[in-house]
């Protein structure tokens, strides 16, 4: 397996060193691998993703893509945010083609390039089922549709790496299932390396080839679970014993590292009937 | 009898429905309420002046004001006064906007510019613009530029801070999305920040336009020999209360017209905000 992303002793502190968001995180992510990150809040999974994207800089350590250390955002790493990342003043089509207007994509460009990009935009719109809304504005679309636009926009320049930060967190369960199969389809077709952050363990297992469990205070990798499911996923697998077992194991790890639990005594005190002496 | 009761019941229900918190109001009902709100004070004014309870010198009636407007138009160059006042507002406001927009965008985008200029602007904006009038007359003189300068002082510093705030309110995700797509710094400013803040910027201009008219009147009351504000001041000297009324109402109407123009421009320029 070729290594696409190599994270070496990545450390990140906030607030002049008072909060350690990442402590010596080491991980290799292979080419065309689908890695998902889960963990209790504050475990640094989003911070790590933002560091890979180049939106945050590490305090120490390094992140290398194809052996070259990253120094800021780059077109080889596309990112899909949780929400509010579309441009409300542009139509769906113009949002997806936004990147084509940027200087970086206008240098040494031939008419064949333009045509190819335009063809890809049309293909992405069809793939995402956006054809009937391509001239609408984002605020006319549902949350699920908006995320499809965001994904299409990220995929337009054929990125080698797709970084996704809880992209389906705000969607309803049914829309989410559709999006899962769509993104699995894309990853297989385009040979994209996908790094996917979520708080939904089921989603993490269903999508990932490996699930990385992170733990908070300080943010670190707790364990890495290879997913033992057939490469071709389908929704029924979520009910298999194998899946359930893995889900339970991961949930247990998250609970143990989270440092929060239900205090039955406190609950009982809250609901105790009024004492009238 | 029973149908009468149901009708009564329905009327009460309709009345109650009006007072639902953040409820819905039909277009007809809205128009009815709006007209009442506008016409009732007018009728009250009419009645008060016609009743003779108050001296005409203190409270001229609507008819007096209208006839004064007519004679102002015929004999006293009303259009000239309106033109010079509008010109001063437009000049002061435009000058203010031309400088405040780029400066506000810089303050809202780059932290060092913010640290350099915002505390100073915050300080100056609390100095009363009116108190600058003697200074302005000393420095700039008493010609047109002094009125424009006063309007500028009154609006510019507020405008800069409001524009900076508009720019800061651009969602950071929109900016980060552009960064991950490989946009340069200048592209992020011109293609994301400015585009995203535009509707808020136009709203800021609309609000500050109202203040520009306030400072116009102040400037003309003190240092002018033409314009609506000056006409109001002169009318006071000659106890022409009807002319004072006419001047105030005219400024109000011009302000309302400009405000509506800004709103219309907003709807035309930013169609995505109005499509749901």
Quick summary:
The complex is a heterodimer of chains A (277) and B (276). With 277 residues, chain A is of the alpha/beta class. In chain A, 34% of the residues lie in helices and 23% in strands.
Architecture overview:
The complex is a heterodimer of chains A (277) and B (276). Chain A has 8 helices and 10 strands. Chain A is of the alpha/beta class and 277 residues long. In chain A, a hairpin with a 2-residue loop joins strand 4 and strand 5. In chain A, helix 6 crosses helix 7. Chain B is mainly α. The chains are: A alpha/beta (277), B mainly alpha (276). The interface between A and B is medium-sized, with 34 and 24 residues.
Largest sheet of chain A: 6 strands, mixed
Shape of chain A: globular
Uncertain regions of chain B: pLDDT < 50 for 5+ in a row? none
Mean pLDDT reading of chain A? 90
* Count of helical regions of chain A: 8
Average pLDDT taken over every residue of chain B: 90
- Largest protein interface? A-B, 34 and 24 residues
Low-confidence blocks of residues of chain A: none
Percent of residues of chain B in beta strands? under 5%
Strand content of chain A: 15-25%
Number of helices of chain B: 12
- N-C termini distance of chain B: 46 Å
Name the helix and strand elements of chain B from N-terminus to C-terminus, one letter apiece. Answer: HHHHHHHHHHHH
Observed structural traits:
heterodimer, A: 277 residues, alpha/beta, 8 helices, B: 276 residues, 0% strand
Summarize the helices and strands and which ones pair or pack.
The complex is a heterodimer of chains A (277) and B (276).
Chain A: E1 3-14, E2 19-30, E3 34-39, H1 45-53, E4 60-65, E5 68-69, E6 77-80, H2 92-96, H3 111-127, H4 143-155, E7 161-165, H5 173-190, E8 193-197, H6 201-207, E9 210-215, E10 220-226, H7 241-258, H8 264-271
Parallel strand pairs in A: 3-8, 3-9, 6-7, 7-8
Antiparallel strand pairs in A: 1-2, 1-4, 4-5, 9-10
Chain B: H1 2-18, H2 27-51, H3 62-75, H4 78-109, H5 111-125, H6 133-140, H7 144-168, H8 172-180, H9 185-223, H10 228-237, H11 241-269, H12 271-274
Helix pairs in contact in B: 3-11, 4-5, 4-7, 4-9, 5-7, 6-7, 7-9, 8-9, 9-10, 9-11, 10-11
């Amino acid at each position: 397996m070729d290594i696409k992303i190599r994270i070496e002793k990545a450390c990140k502190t906030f607030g002049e060193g008072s909060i350690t968001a990442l402590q010596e995180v080491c991980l290799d992510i292979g080419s065309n691998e689908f890695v998902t990150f889960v963990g209790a809040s504050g475990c640094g999974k989003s911070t790590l993703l933002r560091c890979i994207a180049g939106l945050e800089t590490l305090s120490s350590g390094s992140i290398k893509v194809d052996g070259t250390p990253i120094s800021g955002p780059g077109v080889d790493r596309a990112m899909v945010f949780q929400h509010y990342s579309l441009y409300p003043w542009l139509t769906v089509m113009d949002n997806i083609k936004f990147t084509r207007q940027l200087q970086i994509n206008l240098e040494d460009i031939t008419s064949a390039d333009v045509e190819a990009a335009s063809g890809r935009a049309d293909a992405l719109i069809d793939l995402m089922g956006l054809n009937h809304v391509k001239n609408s504005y984002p605020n006319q679309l549902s949350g699920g549709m908006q995320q499809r636009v965001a994904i299409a926009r990220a995929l337009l320049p054929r990125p080698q790496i797709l970084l996704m930060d809880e992209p389906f967190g705000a969607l309803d369960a049914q829309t989410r299932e559709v999006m899962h199969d769509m993104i699995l389809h894309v990853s297989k077709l385009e040979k994209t390396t996908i790094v996917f952050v979520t708080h939904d363990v089921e989603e993490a297992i269903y999508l990932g080839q490996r699930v990385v469990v992170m733990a908070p205070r300080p943010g670190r990798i707790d364990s890495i679970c290879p997913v033992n499911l057939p490469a071709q996923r389908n929704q029924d697998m979520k009910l298999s014993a194998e899946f359930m077992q893995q889900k339970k194991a991961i949930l247990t790890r998250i609970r143990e590292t989270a440092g929060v639990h239900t205090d039955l005594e406190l609950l009982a005190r809250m609901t105790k009937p009024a004492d009238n002496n | 009898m029973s149908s009468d009761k149901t009708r009564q019941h329905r009327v009460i229900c309709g009345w109650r429905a009006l007072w639902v918190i953040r409820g819905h109001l039909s277009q007809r009902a809205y128009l009815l309420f709006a007209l009442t709100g506008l016409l009732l004070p007018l009728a009250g004014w009419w009645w008060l002046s016609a009743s003779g309870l108050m001296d005409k010198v203190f409270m001229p009636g609507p008819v007096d004001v209208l006839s004064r407007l007519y004679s102002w138009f015929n004999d006293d160059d009303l259009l000239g006064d309106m033109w010079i006042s509008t010109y001063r507002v437009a000049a002061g406001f435009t000058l203010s906007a031309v400088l405040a927009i780029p400066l506000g965008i810089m303050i809202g985008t780059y932290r060092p510019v913010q640290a350099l200029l915002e505390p100073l602007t915050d300080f100056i904006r609390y100095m009363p613009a009116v108190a600058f009038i003697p200074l302005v007359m000393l420095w700039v003189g008493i010609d047109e530029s002094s009125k424009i300068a006063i309007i500028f002082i009154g609006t510019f510093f507020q405008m800069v801070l409001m524009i900076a705030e508009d720019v800061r309110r651009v969602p950071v995700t929109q900016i980060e999305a552009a960064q991950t797509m490989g946009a340069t710094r200048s592209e992020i400013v011109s293609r994301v920040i400015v585009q995203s803040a535009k509707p808020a910027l136009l709203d800021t201009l609309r609000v500050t336009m109202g203040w520009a008219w306030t400072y116009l009147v102040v400037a003309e009351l003190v240092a002018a020999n033409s314009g609506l504000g000056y006409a109001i001041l002169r009318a006071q000297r000659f106890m022409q209360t009807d002319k004072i009324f006419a001047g105030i109402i005219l400024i109000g109407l011009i302000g309302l017209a400009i405000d509506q123009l800004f709103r219309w421009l907003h709807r035309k320029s930013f169609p995505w905000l109005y499509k749901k």
